[in-house]
């Protein structure tokens, strides 16, 4: 539910209405909804309902009292831990193929913590594609290890290179 100072309800945030988060364009480019044919705002709604409202219940996070503050803070974190910039600085460029363990090393080097890298495997053309990189944070918004074993986790192949896409395809057939 949107606070009354912004919008009354998520259904108002649509192409039919003018009610928008000020950061919506930045959110749309940095926090992408990869589900085909989904309402463009369904992903942000899900993130707020699942994570934003949960943040309200923690004393250290309840300063994010509404959607606007929550999403502003997520953009600040995103910009501080921009995985694309981290990988580019380490000479991994979108459009290339890389061993996942090399990607993990570059992210761990930046954050000082282990991470989680998820891939999607497509049977045709029998390749792994980088799907998402997860960096975990504690309630003070400091990076923490994603695994207690002090090892990064990945479902990607460690013996084959992973394709790092330049952009999200319209559908998997575009791969």
UniProtKB/TrEMBL annotation:
What is the phylogenetic placement of the source species in the record? Eukaryota, Metazoa, Ecdysozoa, Arthropoda, Hexapoda
Its GO CC terms are: extracellular region
Q: Which PANTHER family match?
A: RIBONUCLEASE T2
Q: Which InterPro entries match?
A: RNase_T2-like (IPR001568), RNase_T2_His_AS_2 (IPR033130)
Which GO biological-process labels does this protein carry? RNA catabolic process
Q: What is a GO molecular function of this protein?
A: RNA binding
The protein's matches in Pfam families, at most eight in alphabetical order, are given as: Ribonuclease_T2
Protein name (database record): Uncharacterized protein
